[in-house]
Every structure is written in C-alpha cells, then in structure tokens.
Specification:
Blueprint lengths: L4 E2 L5 H10 L4 H13 L13 H10 E2 L4 E7 L5 E6 L5 E9 L2 E5 L3 E2 L17 E2 L2 H17 L8 E4 L9 H12 L11 E5 L3 H10 L4 E5 L5 H7 L2 H4 L2 H15 L4 E6 L7 H11 L5 E6 L13 H13 L4 E3 L13 H10 L4
Parallel strand pairs: 1-2, 6-9, 9-10, 10-11, 11-12, 12-13, 13-14
Antiparallel strand pairs: 3-4, 4-5, 5-6, 7-8
Bound molecules: S-adenosyl-L-homocysteine (SAH).
C-alpha cells in the first residue's frame, strides 16, 4: 500500500484542487474541512453528507498525522514550552505565551536554520529540512489539545512564525499553513493575529507583499548599519540594509500595512544612543515601528543582555526622534523558552553539538 498523505498538509484551496483533479466536486473539500475542523471528526466514513465514493477516496488517500509531545515544560507565568517530535524523529520547539489580549503560539518552521545569526540558538544546528504545513499546524493543534484538556476559556488566538527556522526559506509551506490558520473553514484565526518574522530575504518580502495577505510582517533588523549587521547576520551580505528598506517600502506600498522592526538589545554592541540615532535615520521614510527585544543569552555566543536602563534610554531616544517603539515582554525565563534553547540542549545530550 502506498503511503497515505497527511490531511493536515492540505489547505482548503489545495484540497479543492486535489479533489477536482480526481474528478470530484470542489465542494467535497469544504464539507470534509467542516467535519474535521469544526466537528472534530477524523473518520471519513462518518462524514454522512459526503458521497460514498468521496468518502472511500479520502479514506484510501489521507491519514491524520500529528506530531507527538516529547517534553512539556510549564513556567510560573503559565508559558508552556513543548519539545515536539516529528514523524521522522526530528525535534522542534513550540511555545505558548499568555498575553492579556490572548494566547499566542510561537511556531517552528524548519528543523534547524541556515541563516547563522551570531546571537541565536536555533542556528547552532544547521537546517535539516523544512516543516510541512501540517507539521506547523500540528504544533498549534497540540497546544489547543492541552488548553482543551485544562478546560481553558480560550484556545490559540494568535500565531507568530518566530520559532526555529526562517519562514521565508520555506515559503510555499508557510503560505499553506497561514491559510489553514486563517480560513473560516479551518482554524479561523484572524489574519491580523498572525505574524511572520523574517531575517530579511528581500525577494521573498516582495513576493509576500504581492500576495496582499492581511497578516503582519516583522523584520529582524538588530543593527542600524551594514557594518554592524554584517557582523551578526550573514544574510546581510546577500541583502544589505538598503535593499531591505527598499523591500519594506515596496511592502508598504503594496499592502498599506506597517512593518515591525525587531531589534535585540545587545550590550555594548548595538545599544548606544548613537545606535538609536542611526536606527532612526535608517528607517526614516518607512512607517514601521520598532520592537526592542531583551536578549536571551545563549551559552555558545559571546553577547550579553543590555541593561534595563539602557534599553529604556534607547526606547526614549527613538520616541523623541518620532519612532514608535515598544519593548517586548518576556515569558518563561525559568524554562528555556527562548527560541531553540530547549532543542539545542536536548540535541547536545544526544551528542549532536560539540
Ligand atoms: N528567522 C526568523 C524568525 C525566527 S527568530 C527571523 O529571523 O526573524 C524570531 C526572532 O527572535 C527574531 O527576531 C530573532 O532574531 C530573535 N532571536 C533569536 N535569538 C534570540 C535570543 N537569543 N534572544 C532574543 N531574541 C532572539
């Protein structure tokens, strides 16, 4: 028997095409989606309003494949961090953060990462492979199961593609995943409640802009000049800041939306008032706002967290120069919640990192 396909890998548009290619009605896809995502039915035989032939075909073709939970850590602040095991044994991380406005799930998009940012734990392990749309959705479904079992009032309300990996290096699958999150026939999470974060793959920023999705886009800037950014983000050599800013302008023009610039505060590297001035100068002429991120130190890297007062001074300087600025709230510091740290530690135990 051939290997069955994972139903969760199919967005509604993809299943519609797939079924109509097989000679079935597109509407069967919508009906199957309603059964699975609204009624929680996983047995195609029970999908009573579907024609017998469609049910048989779905049965022969699809299975429901969810990743499994290898470790679950719960922090004092309610943050949940999962070490998730994929079908082939690879490990990824998923985090649930509880903001006052909702439950935010941080999703991993790749096993490892090739971007090589010098401050990041994820890149300690090179990319092994991309995650499928269903493996990304599976992370959200696992968190929802936990919330349901706790009888919590809300399931996942927001999703950020900020776990391990570079989402724009896995473009097709994240677009399917976003549809699965957003579509009223599947999870129905509002587009404005979904954020994609990229280290700055310029051609993909443009391609993303052309799709005119209503989801939010964040760019990991982390340095205000090419000279500094080259030192911490190798991707800057391929796509220097001038091109990143041009892509931001293109995005703003196409979508009428504002970008978030993420900026990790690294002690004595990018946290001086001169850096704030350079940053304001760099992004002048775009509508983006700045989110300052407290650094989560990673043992293998030399960077340290910028002191609180310096972070506040930096934020105030930016505000005075007319740049809208926020400081990111921190979660789950007691459970290695920073991206990639849990997985890196587990792989270290298994002997995958020297
Ligand atoms: N590859 C994407 C998304 C994953 S990282 C990107 O680069 O945007 C999500 C965010 O966490 C990025 O802004 C990333 O730079 C930041 N980050 C990585 N390591 C961090 C650390 N140790 N402390 C704080 N933020 C970190």
């Amino acid at each position: 028997m051939r290997n069955k396909l994972n139903f969760y890998d199919f967005s509604l548009p993809k299943l519609q095409i797939y079924l109509s290619d097989q000679g079935f009605k597109k509407f069967s896809a919508t009906q199957a989606f309603e059964w699975v995502y609204q009624k929680g039915e996983k047995d195609f035989n029970n999908m009573s309003n579907l024609a017998l032939k469609v049910r048989e075909f779905l049965n022969d073709t699809f299975t429901f494949q969810l990743p499994t939970i290898s470790q679950e850590h719960i922090s004092e602040d309610g943050t949940i961090k999962l070490l998730v095991e994929l079908k082939d044994g690879n490990l990824v991380e998923t985090v649930l953060m509880r903001y006052n406005y909702g439950n935010v799930v941080c999703v991993t998009t790749q096993v490892g990462c090739n971007m090589g940012c010098r401050f990041c734990a994820s890149g300690l392990l090179k990319k092994k492979r991309d995650l499928s749309a269903g493996e990304m959705l599976g992370q959200v479904l696992l968190i929802n199961e936990i919330l349901k079992n706790n009888n919590e009032a809300k399931l996942t309300t927001h999703v950020v593609l900020m776990g391990i990996g570079e989402p724009f290096d896995n473009f097709t699958n994240i677009i399917d995943f976003i549809d699965l999150l957003n579509n009223p026939k599947s999870l129905e999470i509002g587009a404005r409640h979904i954020t994609v974060s990229t280290c700055g793959l310029v051609p993909k920023i443009k391609e993303f802009a052309d799709l005119k999705l209503q989801v939010k886009l964040a760019i990991s800037l982390h340095a205000p000049t090419d000279e500094k950014r080259n030192q911490i983000m190798p991707i800057n050599k391929a796509y220097p800041l001038k091109e990143v800013i041009a892509a931001v302008k293109y995005y703003e023009h196409k979508t009428n939306k504002r970008i978030t610039y993420e900026y990790i505060m690294l002690k004595d590297f990018n946290d001086s008032l001169d850096d704030a001035r350079d940053l304001a100068r760099l992004i002048k002429g775009t509508n983006g706002f700045v989110n300052l991120i407290p650094y989560n130190p990673v043992d293998e890297h030399a960077f340290a967290r910028s002191p609180r007062d310096r972070t506040y001074a930096f934020a105030n300087a930016l505000k005075k120069m007319g740049v809208q600025t926020t400081i990111r709230k921190e979660f789950g510091n007691d459970i290695d919640a920073a991206c990639g740290q849990l997985r890196a530690k587990e792989e270290e135990k298994r002997g995958d990192i020297d």
